[in-house]
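Write out this protein's structure.
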Amino acid sequence: MADRLGRGAGARRSAAAGERFQRLLELPVASPDRAALFREFIGPTWRDRFGDEVFDDDGYRDWIAADAERQLSRQLEYERSPERVALPALIPAWEAGLAKVVTIPVRGSFTRVVGPAALLVATATRDDPDAYRAALTTFVEDVPRS
């Protein structure tokens, strides 16, 4: 009865997919059979659809190079981020309960502990590694204890 109403077909498809997935796990990693079965799951790749020649193009190489530069730039931004630079001072502040640093756009340097979990600093304070380390140390020293 369930088959005539269309119910139960999803369960059969799910079981078949589970069996194919199990077979995929059992096949050797570099085997052609595993590659073919994997393609059934994910469909064709760009290389399958358009061939190798689309990847042998100056525009493609420029795009790949630009992407690599973007990734490197992001990594450098991370390495230079105020929190990364001030990490030795940030860790004790975090251990003391710091959960939020609020940066405000005011002139000059400014630091204020705002409750047991927040620190208020001026943009100039956060942008200056020594001043930011000092602000984080202030949090550790001045945080209200409960």
